[in-house]
Structure formats: structure tokens, C-alpha cells
Amino acid sequence: MGVPRCQVVPGIPHHFAFQIADREVLRWNFGQDYPRPCFFPVLAPSGAQLTRMGHPGAPDHDHHQSIWFAHNKVLGIDFWGNASGAVVRQLQWFALEDGADSCRMAVELGWFDGHNPAPLLRQELIVEVRPLGEAGEYTLELQSRFVPTAASLEFAKTNFGFLAVRVAKGVSAFFGGGVLTSSAGVTGEKQLFAGAAEWMDYSGSTQINSDDWEGITYLDHVSNPGQPTCWHVRDDGWMCASPCLNGALLTTMETPLQLRYLLYVHEGPVRQDRVAELGGWFRKLQPLRLEKSTVNHVRWQIVRG
User: Fold this and answer.
1) DSSP secondary-structure letter at 135?
2) Chunked in runs of 10, what are the mean pLDDT values of the chain (305 residues)?
3) Which of 82, 94, 101, 103 has a 20 to 30 Å separation from 136 between CA atoms?
């Protein structure tokens, strides 16, 4: 069968490395050194780091972990910062799938309040990494289903949650001279904070003494609640789709909250035409789901539709 072009490779300590043509492009870290799992590093087409751990100038923002899932108010409990004692832990992995055109991961995360040994909710996370062309660009598709352990659970009104992105210092507008751009072509925090958009992009310099830019575009799926979603963005290198910015969201055991996002890692400044093309493809894309496998030695498989 040979070695597929796209692979998810487990490693020590506690990570899954996503590789395209034997080159690692990002890593899922699920050890207990931090209060929650995260993707780091996330590498640009050049191989430079596109995201960072922590804020460049604020030591009280060490909870900013590259690309991660969190929420500020889950039944009033802060799962966003590092001080409340609440943690998110990977409970198990279901599937790690390799392929010629993509690789996939499915895991289950538990959200623990820091007191009760049982989780408040379980997050089923399915990930697909797909290379685009020969320039080293790729997409990271993220699909989450939030299932409460009680009959229902409220995510309260807040700017903070669910999928957070902290870009590298050189890419940020304030620290590095990068540009934050919306789907409407508007730029800058003052014009974009708390506004609605189909997507946001951060692009800037990723290499020393180079004028070459790279970036990451963050697309919100039309099936997510509160369309078009509002955004929490900052010139210091931060962007987050905020479906709870204007009100609470409820998830139930019968109808769990499902959120879908696409991150596009690209070379050069953002191209509106290219992102519009990707956005149209993402809108029509069927969701991913997990099902029991009928193949020997494989317990679960990820299918689309």
C-alpha cells in the first residue's frame, strides 16, 4: 500500500503530528501541561511559525495557546483563562486516518469544572487537513459537537469562545505590521471589532528580513448559529468567531450544539477571490461524522455526509 501523502502520526509526549508529503504542518497537543489541548506549531507554507503560544506583551494572557477551543462562561464557569481550575482534557481518540488527498483525526474532549470528577460536557472534535496545490498551502477543517452530561447546558453571553486563534508576533498588526482583514475587505480592529463577517484573515511577515507575507484565513460555516457571526478581533494578533457575543447558546443531549470552521493557511497577502472560492466550497461541503467501522482492526471511521 505504501506511505500515503497525508498522515496523522502519534508522537511523544502526547501529540498527533499532521504531515503532508513527509513535512509536518501542524501538531495537536493533548498532554496535561496546559489546561486545554491546542494546535501548535502551525506552520506556514515557508515552514515558518504562523501562530504563537501566549501574548507578545501581556503575561496574563498565557491562556492564548495558538489555536484552541474554550469558552468564558459555561454555567458561569470560566473555561477561558487559567485561574478557575476548569480544564479541558482529551478523553480518547477514535480515528486517525491517512490518505492521498487528506488526513483526519477524531477525538473526544471532556470539559471539567475543577471540582466534579465527571465532565460537564463532552466535545466530539473531528479534524481534516487537506493540501491545496503545490505551494504548501492547506486547509484545517474543524467540526465540534458539544454534548452535555445533563439534559441541557448554557453557554452564556460572552465575546470569548469557541475557537480561538493567536497569530505569530510578526503577523499581528500592532507588533509586526501585519493586516487584519474581513470578508468585506475592511481592515483593522477599530472597524472590525464585534462586527459581523463571513470570515477574517490575518496576514503578515513570518520570516526575518523578508518582505514575503503569509497568513491564515478563518471561515465561519453558514450552518453555525447567529449568521453572519460577530467577531472578537484585536490588532495585537488575535481573532475569534463569537457566536455568543450577542446572546447565550443552549446545547442539549437531544440536539447538541454543532460548530464548523475552516482555517486556510496561505502564502502571500489575503486574496479575496481565492477565499470567496473556498468559502463557496465550504458552504456546500457535507459535515463529517463518526461511525463504527466494518474493516478489520479498525474500530471507528470518519465519513462525510
Assistant:
1) T
2) 92 98 97 97 97 97 98 96 97 98 98 96 98 93 98 97 97 97 98 98 91 95 95 98 97 98 98 97 98 96 97
3) 94
- The total number of residues written for the chain in this structure: 305
**Strand-pair partners of 182:** 200
Amino acid at position 74, single letter: V
Q: Which three cell numbers stand for residue 39?
A: 494546535
Instruction: Give burial (CB, 10 Å; 0-12/13-18/19+) of 152.
Output: exposed
Query: Are 155 and 71 spatial neighbours (Cβ–Cβ below 8 Å)?
Result: yes
C-alpha cell, 104: 483526519
Complete DSSP assignment for 175-243: HH--EEEETTS-BSHHHHTT-B-SEEEEEEE-STT---EEEEEEEE-TTSSSSSPBEEEETTTEEEE-T
